[in-house]
Design a protein that fits this description.
By secondary structure, the protein is mainly α. It contains 24 helices and 2 strands. A two-stranded antiparallel sheet has the order 1-2.
């Protein structure tokens, strides 16, 4: 009976008096209390060990946060204080605050809905699913505590974020700490509760999960537009009508009203917004607790398996395996796109043809690459307006965003290198195959970079038409090198490199893992930032160094890719 679909797309679950096999049982057969009590006693040792492990992990995280984060936090507070001392900066923050708050609330809702596609707020361990739900026990007594735990954790996280937001308002001089904290806490508590209720509905409803998959690209586009609105508002170009519509259109705006009132911005009617927020949160949470026990067993098993896989591979630092597990869960139930291109006549073009077809059948990658490119372009525009060390730092951030854009287009190279047996179809060796996998990401990336460079060219920055596309080939080569990185070298985590600041083995591992990214972004940052090519009125000779850097870096990365691919194809020993 589990997995049967209703008209609205919600899957029916086994009713409380029916076992998964279909046999009915009555109240006389109910063993919920006895079973849970027995399980509580039997798992006492496991709970104690888990609590000790969590305590040790929390202590280690606290030490890292205090040891390495205190200095960074102090410098951040100092810089923020210097910026807040400027009236223009504080006023720009106040103007952008409505769009920023709506952006954060909407982004949190999108993350919660996407998270519910592979994990969700009701996450039951696999051993409980395979044994406990097969017993004559009430499902709600098993599933509701899991949902309650997720709600508590999300609420605590939201409250901490509210405290952090109040502190930021105080540091920027927009509000006093007491009133800011008082008005930030209600949104910080209600938004996580609403997100948990939304995630529960996505987890239990097949039709709602399908809609989330279909609407995610549009939601990401909406978030990008909100980010653009915030940047536009910071410069003084605001739309009162648009902001009012956003603030009163739903919980994402109701939650922003008291914060805006605390910051002295557009927060008229914030008591009514709080009443609406409290009422909506109470209704959503009450309905969520009422239906928490109706999630189909099949969905619970799929999420438990995915979560267990992700946890196990993360402990072994296999980030790629974790990403594949999550991606497979997110794609479960998504419509299959069957787009094709004409077959090439030459076998030398077969790899390019396959990559192009793969990109057509996964349009989300191209859309994601376009959004990353737009973010990189906006950050690059900010870098051009700055000088000195600030320009170098922001330029490195823009190049990092460009790396992510091109990396989204190079997924086929990663899939090919995950298991080299997949390359058996190809008439080329693995090294040549990896080189050809860089062609489509380079061509598509160059097209996106040219489109992003047009606004710069219209403003007199003709250099962008050359420099922005020029960054794409090194990123494509670095993505191919990262794909043939090989198995994760966890042995680097135990080198025992003792320094006055502690064991440096984790930093050696991080450098090995991110070597292609650091090489590409660092070299291009040095070539672009130190050449003077970004200065207004820079001579044509200033472009020589960036061009030479990009060409030399691309050649070096491709050479390293070929060598690594050969070692991967024929391992030593």
């Amino acid at each position: 009976m589990s997995g049967t679909a209703q008209r609205d797309g919600t899957e029916l679950t086994d009713p409380p008096g029916v076992e998964p096999g279909g046999a009915e049982w009555t109240d006389a057969d109910d063993r919920t209390d006895e079973t849970l009590r027995w399980l509580h006693v039997r798992r006492r040792a496991y709970r104690n060990q888990r609590n000790r492990d969590l305590a040790v992990t929390g202590y280690a995280v606290l030490l890292l946060g205090v040891g390495y984060g205190s200095t960074l936090g102090y410098r951040f507070v100092q810089q923020l204080g210097h910026l807040a001392a400027q009236d223009s900066t504080a006023e720009a923050i106040r103007r952008a605050l409505p769009a920023v708050l709506v952006l954060l609330a909407c982004g949190f809702a999108v993350l919660a809905a996407r998270d519910a596609l592979w994990r969700g707020p009701v996450l039951v361990p696999r051993h409980e699913l395979s044994w406990l739900l097969a017993q004559p026990v009430r499902r709600v007594r098993v599933l509701r505590p899991a949902f309650r735990l997720a709600v508590v954790l999300m609420t605590v996280g939201g409250a901490l974020c509210a405290v952090g937001g109040a502190v930021l308002l105080r540091l920027t001089g927009l509000a006093e700490l007491g009133p800011a904290l008082l008005l930030c806490l209600p949104p910080g508590v209600c938004l996580p509760l609403l997100a948990a209720a939304l995630a529960l509905q996505v987890e239990r409803s097949a039709s709602l999960a399908r809609r989330v998959r279909e609407l995610t690209p549009y939601a990401v586009l909406l978030l990008a537009l909100l980010a653009g609105q915030a940047a536009w508002a910071a410069t003084g170009r605001r739309s009162a009508l648009l902001e009012t519509a956003e603030l009163w259109s739903g919980p994402w705006g109701w939650a922003a009203l008291p914060v805006l009132h605390a910051a002295g911005g557009r927060g008229e009617g914030w008591p009514a917004g709080l009443v609406l927020l409290f009422a909506g949160t109470a209704a959503a949470l009450a309905h969520a607790f009422r239906v928490a026990g109706t999630i189909p067993t099949r969905r619970l098993r799929a999420r438990a398996a995915t979560a267990a896989t992700v946890a196990s591979v993360l402990w072994s630092a296999e980030l790629r395996a974790a990403k594949l597990a999550v991606s497979e869960a997110l794609a479960d139930g998504a419509p299959v796109i069957r787009r094709r291109l004409p077959m090439p006549r030459s076998r030398r073009l077969v790899v390019v043809w396959r990559d192009a077809v793969a990109l057509l059948r996964a349009p989300g990658r191209a859309v994601s690459a376009a959004l990353w490119t737009a973010a990189a372009s906006g950050t690059a525009g900010l870098a051009v307006a700055l000088e000195g060390a600030a320009r170098i730092a922001v330029l490195a951030m823009a190049l990092a965003l460009g790396w992510f854009a091109v990396g989204r287009l190079a997924e086929t190279a990663r899939l090919e290198a995950d298991d080299i047996r997949r390359s058996s179809w190809s008439p080329f060796r693995l090294a040549a195959l990896m080189l050809q996998h860089t062609i489509v990401p380079t061509l598509v990336g160059v097209a996106l970079a040219l489109a992003a460079a047009v606004p710069f060219a219209l403003q007199g920055g003709g250099w962008a038409l050359l420099l922005m596309p020029l960054c794409v080939p090194p990123f494509a080569a670095a993505a191919a090198l990262a794909a043939v990185r090989g198995p994760v070298r966890t042995d680097l985590l135990s080198l025992g490199l003792v320094t006055p600041a502690g064991d440096a083995s984790v930093f050696v591992f991080g450098f090995w893992y991110a070597a292609p990214f650091l090489t590409a972004v660092g070299s291009l940052t040095a070539g672009l930032g130190l050449s003077g090519a970004l200065d207004p009125g820079a001579p044509a000779g200033a472009l020589v160094r960036p061009v030479a850097t990009a060409l030399g870096l691309t050649s070096a990365l491709l050479f390293a890719t070929v060598r690594r691919a050969k070692k991967l194809h024929r391992p030593e020993g």
